[in-house]
Prior knowledge:
Elements: H1 4-21, E1 25-33, E2 36-43, E3 47-56, H2 70-86, H3 88-91, E4 97-106, E5 109-117
Parallel strand pairs: 3-4
Antiparallel strand pairs: 1-2, 2-3, 4-5
Amino acid sequence: MASSHRRGMLAERRVALQYEQRGFVVLDRNWRCGVGELDIVSANSSTLAVIEVKWRQSSEFGGAAGAVGLVKQSRIKAATELWLVRHPAWSQRDDLAVRFDVAAVTGGVIEVFEAAFE
């Protein structure tokens, strides 16, 4: 049986592939800084999507989607600000919208919540 960490990594890989199939380019995965981690940073021609991937074996205890509370959202936003500072080619684009998505992977099923928070 695969470890929880390994399952989470496989879930992230599947979510990244799904975004690529939708025309996004994955710019970073598991990007870490002092305030947190960004699971996936991807972009298409008009949108920079920061994706938090949550994996759960079942929805018995609220499922994956409910696991991104206000504290986690705040960390993701702060980490995104640092990511943009360190990637000026992306932060200097006036035509690029930044969107925070949550990809809930429950029992192998991927459900993406676009613009899950601001």
